[in-house]
Amino acid sequence: MREHYDEFSKRGYQLIVIAPSKGSFINMFLKEFGPYPFPILGDPARVAYKGMGHKTMPKWKLLSKAAFGFVTGKVKGFVPEDEKQKKFVMESMKTQDVYIQGGTWVYSSSGKVLWNHIDESPENHAPLAKIMEIMDKHK
User: How far apart are the C-alpha atoms of 12 and 96, rounded to whole Å?
Assistant: First the structure.
């Protein structure tokens, strides 16, 4: 989303990311992978995630998808080559909820949900073209 931030702004939308982690962990992430032109907020108790219907993928399913993708070469960059980023990712896999799946929500300026997409798996993100279509429709 970092690469497409300007496209959201040009359409009059604000991008906010909610992560299932504490602020201290998000700050560590930003130190290794930042900066980002939008806020990343924490939801360590997953109240928003659960309340919005986001799903937790079974551990065996996510690990088997990752292994299959790695073996077949379909998943690249699963673990970064940069040593500090790699260390952060490995720590995340041990200490964070990497099994909860995200989603995309588009709201009006009055807070009405215009559209949403709940990810079923890590590769099932909302298509960027669809997000832009929704935004253009509700200018």
Answer: 33
The verdict on whether omega for the bond into residue 37 sits within 30 degrees of 0, i.e. cis, is no
Q: Which residue has the tokens 């070469």?
A: 73
Give pTM, 2 decimals: 0.79
Q: How far is CA 2 from the centre of its chain?
A: 11
How many whole angstroms separate alpha carbon 47 and alpha carbon 54? 10
Residue range 52-103, pLDDT digits in tens: 999 887 666 666 766 666 666 665 556 778 899 989 888 887 887 777 889 9
User: At 41, phi and psi to the nearest 5?
Assistant: -100, 155
Task: Tell me if 21 sits within 8 A of 46, measured CB to CB.
Answer: no
